[in-house]
Amino acid sequence: xxxxxxxxxxxxxxxxxxxxxxxxxxxxxxxxxxxxxxxxxxxxxxxxxxxxxxxxxxxxxxxxxxxxxxxxxxxxxxxxxxxxxxxxxxxxxxxxxxxxxxxxxxxxxxxxxxxxxxxxxxxxxxxxxxxxxxxxxxxxxxxxxxxxxxxxxxxxxxxxxxxxxxxxxxxxxxxxxxxxxxxxxxxxxxxxxxxxxxxxxxxxxxxxxxxxxxxxxxxxxxxxxxxxxxxxxxxxxxxxxxxxxxxxxxxxxxxxxxxxxxxxxxxxxxxxxxxxxxxxxxxxxxxxxxxxxxxxxxxxxxxxxxxxxxxxxx
Length: 314
Prior knowledge:
There is one protein chain. Helices cover 69% and strands 7% of the residues. It is an alpha+beta fold. It has two domains: 4-10 and 21-62 and 166-313, no CATH class; 74-155, no CATH class.
């Protein structure tokens, strides 16, 4: 039987297949592939989640910025329907207003259902009446003028341009994205620790071969290139599995989201993440992450081997 050193330098058809210096199709190699796949999957989920939240936040703020609401309080002896028509007429004359819609009493009461629950009789309560003002997307509306005109005609009218809601949505989205980025970085750090440990274990397990290679004149670059090539292969394999799993997860989530729109939980998930559609940019980000994880695996392996060889040679 040829030695491992012989097969490393003189592989050929008459000899057995050379035993790789770094782990490939071994228990250690398969374990590292599984770890890289899991880490890549988690990192891709974090990246995709950040993209979904950022896109949903932009959509929320865009919708909120295109609308304003006028609120009138009801009371005994007040002709609320006439006041609603007056407020709507004032809004229609305001520059930058595209359309105006008066909510019926039933529609106004329905807005309280998420907080008060269903089945309550709200007929005896002074439920405020709402007017939805859709703003023109071609230019800014003169909301200051609208507010002054409303106060002059109806002193108790309230105009809400949703600026507080927009600011809160933006703050919440930024907080979620920052938390997701922090988790993403922690996953990459954990991946680096695992790869470095696996590399040192592989070099230590082949210490005798490394020493013999040094004796016959092999330099550190030759030894490192062998480890880098093997770990790059393992990195590509694990990253592809993890990235493919993440792409499948988001595709399945989008399919289920498009088929299920019933229930408060589904509505909240859709409000937070939209329809789970990453788009080409999101899927491209996951593919870039796959390549980045494979490169990171090889680079960490190279740095670890160089440092280990430096330590054993000193």
